[in-house]
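Troubleshooting: if your tokenizer reports a length mismatch, compare your output against this known-good record of 266 residues.
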Amino acid sequence: MNHRPRKVALIGWGAIGRVVGGALAAGEVPGAELAGIVDNRPLGDAVPAPQLTMEEALATCDLVVEAAGQGVVREWGEAVLASGTDLLVASTGALTDEELAKRLLATGPGRVYFTGGAVGGLDLLQAVRAMGPLGEVTLTTTKLPATLEQPWMDEGTLTRLRTATTPVEVMSGTARDVPARFPRSTNVAASVALAVGDLDAVRVRVVADPAAAHTSHVIEASGPHGSYRFEVRHLPDAANPATSQVVPYAVLRSLAALAGRRGQIL
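Known-good structure output:
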């Protein structure tokens, strides 16, 4: 039986959007086609699909892929879903705002999905959570110092980052607190918390390491049914070192699942 392809609008033409949009335009995601790109900059003829306003995208597409940051989810998430369009969120850090997350889950008829991005093991954490709450979950994220600089940092903190010769802990807290302070660098913390089902149960450490050739994420969890440890190490994206090279491919995998590709691991 033939199914109508999902018409996809892509928000953002940056490090993630270019890879996702290029693959869609090349027909590499069966069952999905790139119908347009939404970006607040004029993109000219350099893009493989028409540049649309958000209103035009919602009128013509049935799936919106966010690849432009947490602010887009806050500003447009409910409007996308209320229009009947599905939403795939890459910037999961936005969902640590519990009120926003509740509104998105309550809004329809569109459906909201999120991609795990640069981390694995979320499916197993969700399965374990179904047996009962996990007692302890920790995440340690390590990145190059320059990718962790934030406008709120004082001169002392910035100097400590810029002159570090060994790993330096930049912040520790819960998955409720940390993504808000590092909106471009800690979506993994939010993804882990969403899988566990409790923002306050996930303790997060953000570490700056001047010798870090890779971005690393170490998840450790334990509970009455077992203990779990996942470690991933990714090359940073050359165009945007705050994100990992693998992230757009995680988005594409999620897109393939939404488009109905058969035979993949779910």
